[in-house]
Design brief:
The complex is a heterodimer of chains A (about 280) and B (about 270). With about 280 residues, chain A is mainly α. Chain A is built from 13 helices and no strands. Chain B starts with a helix and ends with a helix. The mean pLDDT of chain B is about 90. The chains are: A mainly alpha (about 280), B mainly alpha (about 270).
């Protein structure tokens, strides 16, 4: 009987090591950040008051939401096209789509942002082509604009939107679509009344994933916005290291975490990840 | 019953998908010629291509030092993350805990929190411990950030494991430790490798949190690229990018070959 006890103890140690380590290394400092937000520079709620009254903060938040909405819309549309052809295309097209999804996905976010700088800067490839073809006579300023930030972010987010979409598309029974066509419905009628509703869960999941990722996204907006298009994540970085306003940076972090927690709760209701873990 | 109009629409959709595909690849391809420019600033190489920026990359102590730092930190972090994730997944599989979802949530928490918030949290932790800008600090940072991914891979791997394996082994008299090391772990080989490899890649590329907790004594490769992008963009960054992209593509190819070979072997 002793060995059964021993085995159980051993297995319990295996199970609890990681969750227990999370407490001092993540949960405790998280509470510490929360405490900072209420105590620095002096005790009180003034950091949170500033969060909802400071004009700069509100401008940053509005810009963040505007860019994230735009990025989400464009990314999910692009991803839908890619996912559709990745799942239902001819074998050759499937392979091409797979390359276009996976190679950028595995390449570092910094290199991808750098690629956009190379393309979009004043003496870059895009301006060269436009100048040469006579479409424009003076180079366009494309880097450090909202345009470049949106482009770079869409490029980063598309693969993340493809995965949930492709997984719902794979589960669709092709007989349903055949039945619709067989009864005389047009291709677009079949798409809007049979295919699209069947992929709705994937669309909602993709929208929430991209939106949540975009909200806290730091690298691409910072590189392509060049300090001019500041979103909430970069604003937190500035508060922490340039103005060393730790209390306010902490309050911003807590606010961002709250928004993301609410959106993630929505996501969990849509995709129910507990079904993935048996 | 496919009308001409429908056919045209189909074609349009295919063309649009290819345009999105090109959009995904173009910024990566654009970096390649820049890395061969003979000039000291970002420019197209024109007619004479040069390897000077590759030469500069491998002879500069700053860049080679960063590559070494990144490699060491990634290797150590990947091994630790895989160890922790494997212990958790095994415990989860053996014990089938009642509050399983809660434990999994705790184990993958850093994945659900926006990276910039994790950065503030880890900055707080390491400022208190006095290990900002040290190897120890960066390894802790990377283990926290990549473990959730390893946990997901390992949980998926154990969920495919056959429970009769454990029963058979125990009934034949093997101890719990023997069962784990001789029966269960060998059956998780592929999952172990995937978890380790994913952790290695993610740690090698980690920048969002690293940015907050490194900078003077230890500069990882992504941190050095970041500094270059923010201060003066020089073509050495293009050379690093091309090498990293080439390695990535080779690794993807090797991995899909391994997966393919593994499947073929399982079928026979």
């Amino acid at each position: 009987m002793g060995s059964v006890r021993q085995t159980q103890v051993l297995q319990t140690v295996l199970l609890w090591t990681l969750p227990v380590l999370v407490l001092p290394f993540y949960i405790a400092p998280l509470l510490g950040v929360f405490e900072w937000s209420l105590s620095r520079p002096e005790p009180g709620l003034q950091n949170y008051v500033r969060l909802v009254t400071d004009g700069d903060v509100i401008a940053v938040l509005l810009r963040t939401f505007r860019i994230c909405l735009l990025v989400t819309l464009i990314s999910v549309l692009c991803a839908y096209l890619l996912a559709y052809h990745w799942v239902f295309g001819s074998p050759a097209r499937r392979l091409i789509m797979e390359i276009c999804i996976f190679i950028p996905f595995w390449i570092s976010v910094l290199i991808r942002a750098f690629g956009w700088i190379v393309l979009l800067r004043t003496k870059g490839v895009a301006n060269d082509i436009l100048l040469f073809s006579g479409v424009i006579s003076d180079p366009l300023y494309l880097v450090r604009t909202e345009f470049s930030v949106v482009l770079g972010m869409v490029h980063f987010m598309v693969p993340f939107a493809v995965f949930p979409l492709a997984s719902v598309m794979r589960q669709i029974d092709p007989k349903i679509l055949l039945a619709s066509r067989g009864m005389g419905a047009s291709a677009s009628f079949t798409f809007f009344n049979a295919f699209l509703p069947l992929t709705l869960a994937g669309i909602v999941a993709a929208i929430i994933i991209v939106f949540v990722f975009s909200l806290g996204f730091f690298i691409t907006p910072a590189v392509l916005g060049g300090g001019k298009i500041v979103m909430i994540a970069e604003y937190i970085y500035i508060q922490m290291f340039q103005t060393t306003n730790w209390g306010f940076g902490a309050a911003l972090s807590v606010g961002l975490l709250a928004i993301v927690a609410i959106l993630s709760a929505l996501l969990f209701r849509v995709i129910r990840p507990e079904r993935l873990v048996r | 019953m496919t009308s001409f109009g429908e056919h045209l629409k189909r074609r349009c959709l295919i063309v649009m998908a290819y345009l999105v595909g090109i959009f995904m690849l173009v910024p990566l391809i654009a970096v390649i010629p820049i890395s061969f420019t003979p000039k000291r600033f970002l420019s197209m190489p024109g007619s004479d291509w040069s390897l000077r920026h590759y030469h500069a990359l491998f002879t500069s102590d700053a860049w080679t030092g960063s590559i070494a730092d990144s490699a060491v930190i990634a290797l150590v972090s990947a091994c630790l993350a895989t160890l922790l994730a494997t212990a958790f997944a095994l415990g989860f599989w053996y014990r089938r805990p009642r509050f399983g979802a809660l434990l999994v949530g705790l184990a993958i928490l850093p994945l659900a929190v926006p990276p910039v918030v994790s950065a503030v949290i880890i900055y707080f932790l390491e400022a208190r411990l006095g290990i900002i800008d040290s190897y120890l600090g960066l390894v802790i940072t990377h283990v926290i950030m990549v473990s959730p991914f390893a946990v997901i891979v390992m949980l998926t791997a154990v969920s495919r494991l056959d429970r009769s394996l454990e029963l058979a082994s125990r009934n034949l008299g093997a101890s719990a430790v023997q069962t784990t090391f001789l029966i269960v772990l060998p059956n998780l080989k592929f999952g172990l490798f995937s978890a380790w490899f994913l952790s290695l890649v993610l740690s090698w590329e980690e920048i969002a949190v690293t940015l907050f907790v490194s900078g003077i004594d230890v500069i990882t490769l992504p941190k050095r690229i970041w500094d270059g992008l923010r201060l003066n963009v020089d073509p050495v960054i293009a050379a690093v990018s091309v090498i990293l992209m080439a390695v990535t593509v080779l690794v993807i190819l090797a991995r899909s070959f391994l997966v393919y070979a593994g499947r073929a072997k399982n079928h026979t």
